[in-house]
């Protein structure tokens, strides 16, 4: 059994880490002192530790949860979703949806796994039908920073950065449901 991810105190500053830089998502997520905000930062030394954290989160989630995944190419967004899917008891292989844009997996709670990398904006996202699925599924959207103006206010935001020891995962919950899920993850 892989070791539990190690909790750390400080998230990486914007721009730290290797790989493709990403934009800060605007909006209320930056207000960490609100009652409907929670944050957990962990270091994961291996893909197994990243998956284990995803699995723990998946076990807590219910339909209507939106997860915005942000990080450079190869950082572990899909690996995290593999663990998330395991926690949701989702069926089928979890692979990157980059070229198909979205995959729907049935499970205890259905999982809509989508990729915004090639989307042009809100219209493209709407065409995928995520809004219609959102109340029935957990939605995990990779490259969410590329369409930040269309994201729901109540969301879990996962930022993954490279570190010398592996990956740093900064999980932020904004809104009542999402912040409660992030709080429940805390040791």
In short:
This protein is α/β, with parallel strands linked by helices and about 190 residues long.
Give an overview in words.
- The structure is a single chain.
- Helix 1 (47-60) packs across helix 2 (77-87).
- The longest helix is centred in the N-terminal third of the chain and has 14 residues, at 47-60.
- 43% of the residues are buried.
- Residues 1-31 have low confidence and may be disordered.
- The protein has an eight-stranded mixed beta sheet.
- The two termini are 18 Å apart.
- It contains five helices and eight strands, in the order E-E-H-E-H-E-E-H-H-E-E-E-H.
- It is α/β, with parallel strands linked by helices.
- It has a single domain, classed as P-loop containing nucleotide triphosphate hydrolases (Rossmann fold, 3-Layer(aba) Sandwich).
- The chain has helices spanning 47-60, 77-87, 122-128, 130-133, 176-185; strands at 6-7, 37-44, 66-70, 102-105, 111-115, 138-142, 155-163, 166-174.
CATH topology: Rossmann fold
E-strand count: 8
In DSSP terms (H or I, runs of 4 or more residues), the helix count works out at 5
Count of individual domains: 1
Instruction: Report the radius of gyration as a whole number of Å.
Output: 15 Å
Q: Which architecture name does CATH use?
A: 3-Layer(aba) Sandwich
Measured by DSSP, the beta-strand proportion falls in 25-35%
Share of residues in helices: 10-25%
| Shape summary | globular
**What would CATH call the homologous superfamily?**
P-loop containing nucleotide triphosphate hydrolases
Biggest sheet overview: 8 strands, mixed
Q: Give helix and strand order, one letter per element, not per position.
A: EEHEHEEHHEEEH
Please mark out the parts with pLDDT under 50 across 5 or more consecutive residues, or reply none: 1-31
């Amino acid at each position: 059994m892989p070791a539990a991810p190690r909790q750390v105190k400080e998230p990486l500053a914007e721009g730290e880490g290797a790989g493709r830089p990403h934009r800060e998502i605007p909006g209320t997520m930056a207000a960490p002192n609100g009652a409907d905000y929670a944050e957990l930062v962990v270091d994961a030394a291996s893909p197994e530790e990243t998956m284990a954290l995803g699995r723990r989160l998946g076990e807590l989630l219910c339909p209507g949860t939106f997860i915005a995944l942000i990080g450079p190419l190869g950082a572990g967004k899909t690996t995290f979703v593999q663990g998330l899917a395991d926690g949701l008891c989702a069926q089928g292989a979890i692979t990157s949806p980059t070229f198909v844009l979205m995959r729907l997996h049935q499970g205890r709670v259905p999982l809509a796994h989508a990729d915004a990398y090639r989307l042009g904006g809100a219209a493209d996202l709407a065409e995928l039908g995520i809004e219609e699925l959102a109340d029935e599924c957990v939605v995990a959207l990779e490259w969410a920073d590329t369409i930040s103006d269309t994201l729901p206010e109540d969301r879990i935001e996962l930022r993954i950065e490279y570190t010398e020891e592996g990956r740093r995962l900064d999980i932020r919950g904004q809104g009542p449901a999402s912040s409660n899920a992030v709080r429940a993850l805390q040791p």
